[in-house]
Amino acid sequence: MLEVAQQAVDAARRAGADYADARFVSTESETLTVRNQEMETLNRGLSQGIGIRVLTGGYWGFAATARTTPEDIERTAGLAVSIARAASRLPMEPIRLAEVAPARGSWSTSVLEDPFTVPLDEKVALLMEASRRLQGVPGVTFGEASMDFLRRRSSFASNEGAAIEQTIVHSGGGIEATALSDGEMQRRSFPNSFRGHIRAAGYEHIRTLGLVEETERTGREAVELLSAKDCPSEVTTLVLDSNQVILQVHESVGHPLELDRVLKMEEAYAGTSFVSPEDRGKLRYGSDLVTITADATLAGGLGSFAFDDEGVPAQRVTLIDRGIFQEFLSSRETAPVVGGRSTAAMRADGWENLPLIRMTNINLEPGEGTLAEIIGDTKDGIFMTTNTSWSIDDKRVNFQFGCELARRIRDGRLAEVYRNPNYAGITTQFWGSCDAVGGAEEWVLWGTPNCGKGQPGQVARVGHGAPPARFRDVQVGVR
Fold first, then answer.
1. Do 214 and 326 sit in the same domain of this protein?
2. 328 and 186 inside one domain
3. For residue range 320-335, what is the model confidence (pLDDT) as tens digits?
4. How confident is the model at residue 236 (pLDDT cuts 50, 70, 90)?
5. Please, what's the largest Cα pairwise distance for the chain?
6. pTM for the whole structure
7. 61-73 burial, b if ≥16 CB within 10 A, otherwise e?
8. What is the pLDDT of residues 338-378, one digit of tens each?
9. Strands, E, within 119-210: which ranges?
10. Residue 68 shares a structural domain with residue 175
């Protein structure tokens, strides 16, 4: 694979490219879903090919092919150069890349048990049992269990001398109980919504999730929500579980700090950002308790790697330090615009797409205390857990998010259950109201496998680590 990538780079240089890099990517995937003890989904896929990216006269060109004969590589490299020459007619400033030392080496996710060699019968049996137990909870209409696996092998070469091989493995699973009654539908998910909890790991991660063991509680909570009252509309103290804090981080911190959005390179599809280059070191993004990092070096994160898709080494970068905005997520192209260096945030969805600035593992750093202690320190408020919906404007300022379940906090104790909870806010005001962040013992590194961006659209897998947190004077209500 690496030899093929180097051949593509050489072909692009012969065609006239000033700079060239190539990525040969092979991606295997497996998706299983059981619903009411019936096999609903069993998909296996393999996709491989090569993407060639060039700079000619300061303008980008990109072309890709699934065929890797010498003739096809030569043709595709020539097409990339032709596209770059055509782009030179656009009213744009020529692109300048930030310097990076050419890297050589290999890296892979730490895997104890290869998920693709675990017998299919074993996987299906676990999902069937989880589904059976969910159905066995009185009042549960649908019991669903799922698993997802991915292995991505990539080889990257550039004319600067980079030669990198990486293998990334992701494994995850989850269960979902759906209850129906009198036109009302309620769901409860475990360990998280949107197909559970996915990590950069092997099948050993599935064995730790407790999918079968958590079926009774998950089903019982779904049924309980049917008769619960709707979440009241009020301004109150809000305590968010770790699995909802990560959605807040993703939408109101991760996306607005992507430098291509700030520079309006993503304006047409994904929107821009309320943050400007002049805000670095000045903008009060949150309270003193809010420190947020981008860390591609974390073991187990869906946004972890050794080198991004430009060959830049993985980094830990402080984006917000004690409430003050410090740094963007950037690329070799965008970093020079603001006088910085690439933060290694460039990744592509497969071989056929151009790399974009994507989140790595964007984390709310831990503070002190447990969830129980945060709730115990709250006289009156609302606790919410497990995301079910999100909405945020194209500058990432005004948002409203829905959760699966809420509970009233009375005198430091969890009280009655509410259904269809929703909360809304303005990004900097909301983070500014944060007055409690849980400690390291409550910090969880979650996976988000469905982050969309770009034209043509790409889906990225990103990670978010967070503990539970508390926010004051938040508008809550029913979704």
1. no
2. no
3. 999 999 999 999 999 9
4. very high
5. 73
6. 0.96
7. bbbbbeebeeeeb
8. 999 999 999 999 999 999 999 999 999 999 999 999 999 99
9. 140-158, 163-181, 184-190, 197-199
10. yes
pLDDT band at 177 (very low <50, low <70, confident <90, very high): very high
Q: Verify that 71 and 106 share a domain, yes or no.
A: yes
- Considering the domain architecture, whether residues 405 and 260 belong to the same structural domain is answered as yes
Residue 103 and residue 60 in one domain: yes
Residues 242 and 176 occupy one common structural domain: no
User: What contacts 304, CB < 8 A, 6 or more positions away?
Assistant: 109, 168, 200, 296, 297, 298, 314, 360, 361, 463
138 within 8 A of 217, measured Cβ to Cβ: no
CATH of the domain at 196: 3.30.2290.10
Place of tokens 């096999």: 39
Strand partners, 146: 33, 174
What is the β-pairing status of strands 104-108 and 59-65? unpaired
Residue 254, domain extent: 230-478
Residue type, 182: D
Adjacent-strand bridge partners of 186: 179
Q: What is the pLDDT of residue 90?
A: 86
Number of domains making up the chain: 2
Same domain, 206 and 331: no
Tell me the mean pLDDT in the region 211-236: 98
